[in-house]
Design brief:
The protein has a 6-stranded antiparallel beta barrel. A 4-stranded antiparallel β-sheet has the order 3-10-8-5, with no helix packed on it. The relative contact order is 0.19. The chain is 27% helix and 35% strand. The protein folds into 2 domains: 187 residues, Elongation Factor Tu (Ef-tu), domain 3; 126 residues, OB fold (Dihydrolipoamide Acetyltransferase, E2P) (Beta Barrel). Helix 2 packs antiparallel against helix 3. It is an alpha+beta fold.
Length: 352
């Protein structure tokens, strides 16, 4: 065999050896690799222990301040307003003059009634004297007496109408509306003013029918706090509780009077807190509870999440009550969103 042919065969042999070595190396590499096992991540969480707190059981509602007595001042006689002494916000006392309606027509009526009374009194005196001497009959005397009584009644009516031309405040209070002015026409169809007693303010609260039995059972033991946003606050006392539920709105009316009306005015928007029971419970913050009302605690092993469908015994705006048997347990306060029952957790801190 010539030299060239031998070199060619040698190259092929070397290549085959190299390919075999590479194949052997790959076989060893892939068969030596261990199977990858998925390890789910461990969720970091913070925990909190339940604590005993006082919970005020009740509800919060909204409403508006009203004056317990709002008196429209309507004139009993009509005419041009000649004097108008008030404006909105003025304090008036009972009997104080607030407006004067043109008195002249009513003064003339009074003068005419007075003249008629005087004439009939003179005529009656003459007939009475004649009747005593037999110059007039008893019938004439009685007829004039009746006319005189009627004239006197007309005079009294004229004097009363004249007095009505001076319009006075029927109650003490604050003028909250003063819609008239000098020169306007006063009549019984339009009040000259509206007076309210700002020392006696109320709130009419519409309470949902689901609370009817609870509120009725509590009765006078109910407590109320009325507060205006960024404004005054006051306790209140029950004036009345409607004994029925409005079938249209599915609510019943609770009427309360403010204990301290200082700073409140009619029409002011308020928030009302109604409390019917105050008691100490084992509690957790509202933030611990999930949307479905459940909570998560750390299991006894300390490394998994335990799902608890805890019954809410009572709650307020900040905390909710749980069964005392959960005292001392670690509840997940942060990181519970998205957890699944039995999921691995790692406690990274405890809320205080």
């Amino acid at each position: 065999m010539d030299k060239k042919k031998r070199n060619s065969i040698l190259r092929y042999i070397i290549l085959l050896v190299i390919f075999a070595a590479v194949a052997a190396a790959l076989y060893v590499f892939f068969n030596a690799e261990k199977a990858t096992v998925y390890e789910p991540p461990v969720s970091p969480v913070e925990t909190i222990k339940p604590e005993y707190h006082t919970i005020n059981e009740g509800i919060e509602l909204t409403g508006y301040i009203e004056a317990e007595a709002m008196i429209p001042v309507v004139p009993f006689v009509g005419g041009t307003v000649e004097e108008y002494m008030i404006k909105a916000g003025d304090r008036v006392e009972k009997g104080e003059t607030i407006a004067v309606i043109d008195r002249r027509p009513y003064e003339l009526q009074k003068e005419m009634a007075e003249a008629q009374v005087k004439g009939l009194e003179a005529a009656f005196a003459r007939v009475d004297a004649l009747a005593s001497s037999g110059g007039a009959t008893a019938q004439d005397r009685d007829s004039l007496s009746a006319q005189l009584d009627a004239a006197r009644a007309q005079l009294e009516a004229a004097e009363l109408q004249l007095s009505y031309a001076t319009v006075t405040a029927p109650v003490s209070g604050t003028v909250i509306q003063a819609p008239s002015a000098v020169g306007s026409i006063g009549s019984s169809e339009m009040p000259l003013a509206v007076i309210a007693d700002l020392d006696s303010l109320i709130v009419n609260l519409k309470v949902g029918e689901r609370y009817f039995q609870t509120v009725m059972a509590a009765g006078e033991d109910l407590s109320f706090v009325i507060s205006a946003p960024d404004g005054p606050s006051s306790t209140a006392e029950v004036v009345s509780i409607a004994p029925y539920v409005d079938p249209t709105s599915k609510t019943f009316l609770v009427r309360v009077r403010l204990s301290d009306p200082e700073g409140f005015v009619p029409g002011m928007f308020i928030r009302a807190s109604i409390v019917w029971k105050t008691e100490e419970y084992l509690t957790l913050p509202i933030s611990v509870r999930r949307l479905d009302g459940s909570v998560y605690a750390v299991s006894e092993s300390g490394d998994t999440a335990e799902y608890i469908a805890a019954e809410t015994l009572a709650e307020d705006t900040e905390r909710f009550a749980i069964d005392p048997s959960y005292e001392g347990r670690d509840f997940i306060s942060r990181g519970q969103t998205g957890l699944l029952p039995g999921e691995k957790v790692r406690v990274v801190g405890e809320e205080r």
